[in-house]
């Protein structure tokens, strides 16, 4: 059987051009090295180099093994380096799924910073419109889920990222825009614009309309936050969004943000990770980078107590 050390030995013979110099590189005597080569030749039934040639010249069989060495030794070395990085937590896979569909304003700068700092980590991103991100995390299909709706799932831990206020985005010329807060009944005859996900994953239904037994007159959906806010601005309906997701539109006055209920509605954004993986260096670095970048980019958020990103 041809083994890695055989290929390494022949590569060194070619590099040094002599048995004596190769023996020195391997910290062997020339006779011990010659014995190893002879042992390999006896096993294969061929000669690997011409004994009397100066400089050293390989046989056709030797050239064939050197070709094999040129193909596989670099791959083996690369794999060993990659495995060492994985063992040290310096490399790995970080596939991210979003249940937060308006997170791109802070997530893209986070990914840009993280890629520069951790180039050995394979990154990918998917939006959970048509998949269930948290079950995918349990299965191992993704490695981190950004969500505001934690579920009690075995083997999953949730790291709070920041707190935020949920507002009702209203057309600026609608009577509701001048109210100090909105009641569920205010939406009974209105169009509600949401992301195309199940109602049980939307706070506006589970925490506001549902408990009051209120159903909007119509529900329409769009996948893009920008389109959702444009529809609100043009008087096509209302939408419930985190305040930080409509910062630009609030500043321009194209929409008005109305608190949901007299006490308002708050939420927390989490990063969901499989237990046992949160302490990996590349994962710890991502969660810290996300906390720093979200605080830097967004204004309508509050840090979670004990989660100082500085």
From TrEMBL:
Top-rank taxon, per record: Bacteria
InterPro entries: LysR_HTH_N, LysR_subst-bd, MetR_PBP2, WH-like_DNA-bd_sf, WH_DNA-bd_sf
Keyword Amino-acid biosynthesis annotated: yes
A Pfam family it matches: LysR_substrate
Compartments, record wording: Cytoplasm
Residues covered by the HTH lysR-type domain: 1-59
Keywords from the named record: Activator, Amino-acid biosynthesis, Cytoplasm, DNA-binding, Methionine biosynthesis, Repressor, Transcription, Transcription regulation
Family according to the record: Belongs to the LysR transcriptional regulatory family.
Annotated PANTHER family: HTH-TYPE TRANSCRIPTIONAL REGULATOR, HTH-TYPE TRANSCRIPTIONAL REGULATOR METR
Protein name: HTH-type transcriptional regulator MetR
Biological source species: Thiohalorhabdus methylotrophus
Lineage: Bacteria, Pseudomonadati, Pseudomonadota, Gammaproteobacteria, Thiohalorhabdales
